[in-house]
Amino acid sequence: MATVLTHNAARLAGLVHPLPREVACTLVILGGAGDLSHKKLLPALYNLTLDGALGPKFAILGFSLEPLDDEKYRQFARDGIESFSRRALTEAGWDKFAPLLHFLSGSFTETADYQKLKQRLGDIESETGTGGNRVFYFAVPPQFIERCSAGLTQAGLIGQADGNRGFTRVVIEKPIGHDLASAAEINNQLSKYFAENQVFRIDHYLGKETVENLMVLRFANSIFEPIWTSRFVDHVQITVAEQEGVGTRAAYYDKAGALRDMVQSHLLQVLCMIAMEAPRSTHPDAVRDAKLDVLLSLRPFEPADVGKSVVRGQYEQGLVNGEKVAAYRAEEHIPSDSNTETFVALKCYIENWRWAGVPFYLRTGKRMTNRASEIAIQFKRVPRILYNSRPAPPLPANVLSIRIQPDEGLSLNIVGKQPGSPLRLGPVKVDFHSSIASPEAYETLLRDVITGDQTLFMRRDTVEAAWRFIQNILDSWEVSGSEPFLYPAGSSGPTEAAVMIARDGRTWRNL
């Protein structure tokens, strides 16, 4: 038996969020003609223009080696919007957006090109009246971060976070390093040129509407907070499953793997939002302090724990949606003897008063049965008395499921009486989902960068705390030299992951 309640998300909350205010600013995209700009940044900026967030005192300047001028760059942007925007391109929308676009061809390593950038930026600021407010988006590989920072600084393009001549902000894409030492080195490089409140370390997963709504769910609803503790919660599962393989990211992915690519950033950040204490306010640093406390409370993995509580896997040949797909080691640009994991499952504990003894199970993988991202809070079963005294098996536990994708929303599984007589009990699913299209993650995050809101961006100490937690796992794998367990493409992962959670008398939720 299921009860499905569908609501417009805004009506359900009783709130209507105003459109973000227009901010005078020039956004300089270093790597402005790359894939990230084409598929994500420019379509997101187009949609922000439609929303009224980018006004006439806003400009976008692409900077990279490609031999483009303004008109060719506008065509590049138009192609990206037509292919990747969540909303269709309209001539009225394009007429509003196209004049914002500019391009300068130049090298990230040539000092003279940064002087040309300074001149071009000054001309644009004079024409548009952006008041010296600047955002530099580093859509570049990590090895160029210091060179770009130095070039901008030497050209006199970096001001204070909120100086008299306008603000300066810089956006850094993940990955922030490949281990704790390299992450600290990148952060040291950034600190030579920017104050911490100027640095926006972007993780697109945190811009998803449902992830943003986790704090609202917890702290704006009195029914949840009293039961959000070890007294009532049996365990928590966080799953990010993907059907696709490595695709065009093979060269990067084989050096990273699922633990670095997904767990260190996305899954641990979601864990923080689910598990953190109520922040003292909604100020960005108050929220980020609360998330940091969760990371610092995670029980470190000892070498012996890794073998028992962490499972890594790699997909082999199989069927996805009825189509045969190749094994990871047979993918283009992947070595035939690669030990890179495409799947990780782990059990961790948060050693604080709220969560003592509650296991958090995290899993992520490629070439899985379905594409699904979910947070499931399973509550403890009722005692074996009254309605639960005779059934075999016992009544199912209540589960609150928060779906991040593909169908954003939440559902609550409860037990109810089935119609008729004699008394029969069965599961009832109460389901809420949004009936309106949510903004893409990059729309939310770019809006926040422009308005200066760092709530959804990772601070230096948070990045390094996350790396510190998984470093022991990386070190243990390197010492052991063991190979990942294989699982067929189109499955739910290696059998060993099911065995790990079964030892605790629990099972993974179906994808």
What is the CA-atom radius of gyration, in angstroms?
Answer: 24 Å
Q: What proportion of the residues form beta strands (DSSP E)? A: 15-25%
Q: Going across the biggest sheet, name each strand in turn.
A: 1-17-16-15-14-8-13-12-9-18
Structural class: alpha/beta
- Global mean pLDDT: 89
Q: List the total number of helices.
A: 14
Q: Count the domains.
A: 2
> Architecture of the largest domain, according to CATH?
2-Layer Sandwich
Unreliable stretches covering 5 or more consecutive residues: 1-20
**Tally of extended strands?**
18
Instruction: State the share of residues found in helices, binned by percent.
Output: 25-40%
Please write the CATH class name of the largest domain.
Alpha Beta
Summarize the structure in words.
The chain is of the alpha/beta class and 511 residues long. The chain folds into two domains: 20-173, NAD(P)-binding Rossmann-like Domain (Rossmann fold), CATH 3.40.50.720; 207-393 and 465-502, Dihydrodipicolinate Reductase, domain 2, CATH 3.30.360. The chain has helices spanning 9-13, 35-50, 70-84, 91-97, 111-128, 145-154, 180-193, 209-219, 250-275, 284-297, 303-309, 441-451, 460-480, 495-502; strands at residues 2-4, 25-30, 58-64, 101-105, 134-138, 168-173, 199-202, 233-241, 310-316, 318-320, 323-325, 343-349, 359-365, 372-379, 399-405, 409-417, 425-433, 485-488. Strand 5, helix 6 (145-154) and strand 6 form a beta-alpha-beta unit. Helix 9 (250-275) crosses helix 13. It is globular and about 80 Å long.
